[in-house]
Amino acid sequence: MKENYFTELDLIEPIQRVLREKNFTIPTPIQMGGIPIVLEGRDLIGCAQTGSGKTAAFALPILQNLSKNQSNPVRRSTRALVLAPTRELAVQISESFSLFGSHLRLRHAVVYGGVSRRSQIEKLERGVDILVATPGRLLDLMEDAKIVLGLAKVLVIDEADRMLDMGFIPDIKRIIAALPGIRQTLFFSATMPPAITGLAGNILHEPQHIEIASNVHTTPQIDQKVLFVDRNNKKALLIKLLADENVRRALVFTRTKYMAKDLSRQLVRQRVRSDDLHGDKTQAARQQALNSFHKGRIQVLVATDIASRGIDVDNISHVINYELPYEPENYIHRIGRTGRAGKKGTALSFCEASEVGYLRQIEKVIKQQLPVWETQPFHSHSAAACSSSAKHRSSSSSARYAGSSGRKRSRSKKRYGSYI
Ligand code: AMP
């Protein structure tokens, strides 16, 4: 297959220079397809997830377009707005703008909640070219007129499906109402549930579509297994697994922040180097946990789904689903934290009897049956038996099963925002 190079894209020299400095030679598919569309000023729907290179796909052409129409930012305003669901993702996007724009003279700022507003307000006072924001803090600053959006001609919505999960859609609608009607809109989402397709239909103008297959379907380098286990044996199984020297850096997922905190505390008591990451922690504490994990000071990070996307820590050898996610799509995001950049990774999913329904939903979404690790020391025959009878029921009446689980999912979606 012929490979394409960044030099073939119509990017200006200051941007080509950064790409050379950073050894970015070959654009990813979303970059190859998306950059020309964004440079032309057209609207875009990109169906792609973190790890696909989507940040550069929008950051590079936005920087180029803004620098070609250089103008002094107006006080308390921005020329481009990027919305991200979590603080971590907002910080990562902002770092990408600093990096890719390092040879350009554009100002950017990032605002998110959980920290003092003061330095954010100071930065906005002079005006910026690019503002990266989480919805809550942005609305808060808009209400106090610390930022006005009337001059923002470019809007990026990143991880729109995550915004939906976290209950941000009403906030997004209020923010969009404050933007000029004539603007360029770029919309990224890993999945396109109906509510997201509906939102996109309302806010984009004749968009181009790019769909990048999820890396789970296409990357055999993630070795996935399900471990049937009784609830009261889960902790012992986890500790056993963590004692294996191959488990160098493990990201362990729970469904609730309570469980994340509690489990990490219990691991520390067992002398496992561990910390937790969830929505109850301050931004500084979250960043500290991530840094410790990144630097290898801790072996285990116990996290809620807040960390299932956007966290770009290298060399995570294992993702362990201590509890299966309510939303099957989150399984894909969780396990996508390992097996990155061509490396091998392992994803182990604990499944107790009451979680068998979640397992079925995951297998439907990933279109494959997960291999069972039967020889692990805490294998639960009863949970495994529940699974095979659920499988039988689902194949004999798949329509009925899908209907009832669909209702269950929409209920869980409403519930779970505040738990992570
Ligand atoms: P993203 O999907 O935007 O979060 O990017 C995932 C990771 O891939 C980031 O660490 C990027 O710096 C890196 N990356 C993105 N595009 C390229 C590229 N074309 N070549 C090499 N690395 C890239």
Present the secondary structure layout.
Blueprint: H1 13-21, H2 29-39, E1 44-47, H3 54-68, E2 78-83, H4 87-100, E3 108-111, H5 118-125, E4 128-133, H6 135-143, E5 154-157, H7 160-165, H8 169-177, E6 184-189, H9 194-203, E7 208-211, H10 215-218, E8 222-228, H11 234-242, E9 250-253, H12 257-269, E10 274-277, H13 283-295, E11 300-303, E12 318-321, H14 328-335, E13 345-351, H15 356-366, H16 381-396, H17 398-416
Parallel strand pairs: 1-6, 1-7, 2-4, 2-5, 3-4, 5-6, 8-13, 9-11, 9-12, 10-11, 12-13
Structure summary:
The protein is an alpha/beta fold and 420 residues long. It is 44% helix and 15% strand. The protein has 2 domains: 6-212, P-loop containing nucleotide triphosphate hydrolases (Rossmann fold, 3-Layer(aba) Sandwich); 216-383, 3-Layer(aba) Sandwich (Rossmann fold).
Q: How is this structure best described in words?
A:
The protein is of the alpha/beta class. It has two domains: 6-212, P-loop containing nucleotide triphosphate hydrolases (Rossmann fold); 216-383, Rossmann fold. It has helices at residues 13-21, 29-39, 54-68, 87-100, 118-125, 135-143, 160-165, 169-177, 194-203, 215-218, 234-242, 257-269, 283-295, 328-335, 356-366, 381-396, 398-416; strands at 44-47, 78-83, 108-111, 128-133, 154-157, 184-189, 208-211, 222-228, 250-253, 274-277, 300-303, 318-321, 345-351. Helix 14 (328-335) links the parallel strand 12 and strand 13 (345-351). It is globular, with a radius of gyration of 22 Å. The two termini are 43 Å apart. The structure holds adenosine monophosphate.
